[in-house]
Design brief:
Layout: E1 11-14, E2 34-39, H1 45-48, E3 57-63, E4 73-74, E5 83-84, E6 97-108, E7 111-115, E8 124-130, H2 133-136, E9 159-162, H3 164-177, H4 181-189, E10 201-204, E11 207-212, E12 215-222, E13 225-233, H5 237-242, H6 246-256
């Protein structure tokens, strides 16, 4: 019988990414994404970071604290089939431990300023180690189940095109809620249009659909180009007709806007039956 191990975090990561869908899938995807590692006081770590600033990059060992259980097989974003979880970097692991290399810009007391983060804000940090080029670079490393001809990201990104209607709808949503919908759509569909549970892409009777929070984005793919056609609410008609919550009221207003190429954006504060603040963070709905 294995003996349980006790792991105590030494700090947390602060990043711009608050939701799983928003975080880069690898540190190399957003090399300049800023972040800080805030080490906990009272752990004798003041001396532990001595000389760390002499290194250009560090390994960050962290805990996927928002991973919901583990799966023996997962489908990575760049794969067309399921793979054994230990042959991937999925967070859904038997022990949800993550490992990323980040660029170290400064050590300011117990705060490390870094770049190239791919962790969610508030992720617990278990350990930090220097990235040592002569020991950590493996020049003849294989590429596993990825195409051996590919280096870096294994597939070129798809080109994302927007119809005028979809552009206006996305701008309306961003103005009303603060959600950067267009950039979220672009970064998700750049990986491809194939139905994928993790990226919330599926085929419906109306065609291909991407879900971002409570919004549903219809798109069509031709070759390496994906065209965003239109956006609609993810709430059912009955919910839109009967619910009086501010979020549903906003979706109801969205559904009643007559979309035309000259249709103006709404004011900063959206006028609905239940007044909203200048920006509203719309939470993801369960089971959608």
């Amino acid at each position: 019988m294995s003996t349980p191990l006790v792991v105590t975090p030494i700090g947390v990561v602060r990043t711009p990414f608050h939701e799983k869908a928003a975080a880069p899938r690898q540190p190399t995807v957003e090399r300049d994404a800023p972040g800080t590692i805030e080490l906990f006081a009272g752990r004798d770590l003041e001396d532990a970071v001595a000389d760390l600033a002499s290194w250009a990059h560090v390994w960050v060992l962290f805990w996927f604290d928002r991973a919901e259980g583990w799966r023996p097989k997962v489908q990575p974003p760049r794969s067309t089939q399921k793979r054994g979880v230990l042959a991937t970097r999925s967070p859904h692991r038997p022990n949800p431990i993550g490992l990323s290399v980040v660029r170290l810009e400064a050590v300011e007391g117990l705060t490390l300023r870094v770049r190239g983060v791919d962790m969610l804000d508030g992720t617990p940090v278990l350990d930090i180690k220097p990235y040592v080029p002569y020991a950590d670079i493996v020049l003849d490393a294989g590429s596993g189940w990825l195409d051996p001809k590919d280096f870096g990201d294994p597939l070129a990104n798809y080109v994302i095109a927007w119809t005028p209607l979809a552009q206006q709808q996305a701008a309306w949503i961003t103005r009303a809620t603060g959600l950067p919908l267009a950039s979220r759509v672009d970064s998700t569909l750049a990986l491809g249009p194939t139905p994928h549970a993790y990226r919330r892409i599926r085929q419906t009777a109306d065609g291909s659909m991407l879900a971002v929070k409570d919004w549903r984005i219809a798109f069509a793919a031709t070759g390496r180009t994906i065209t965003i056609l239109r956006i609609k609410s993810g709430y059912r008609p009955r919910e839109l007709a009967t619910s009086d919550t501010p979020i549903v009221a906003l979706h109801r207003q969205f559904q009643t806007v007559e979309w035309g190429v000259d249709n103006p954006l709404p004011p900063t504060s959206v006028a609905v039956d239940n007044p909203l603040p200048p920006t509203l963070t719309v939470p993801a709905r369960e089971g959608s």
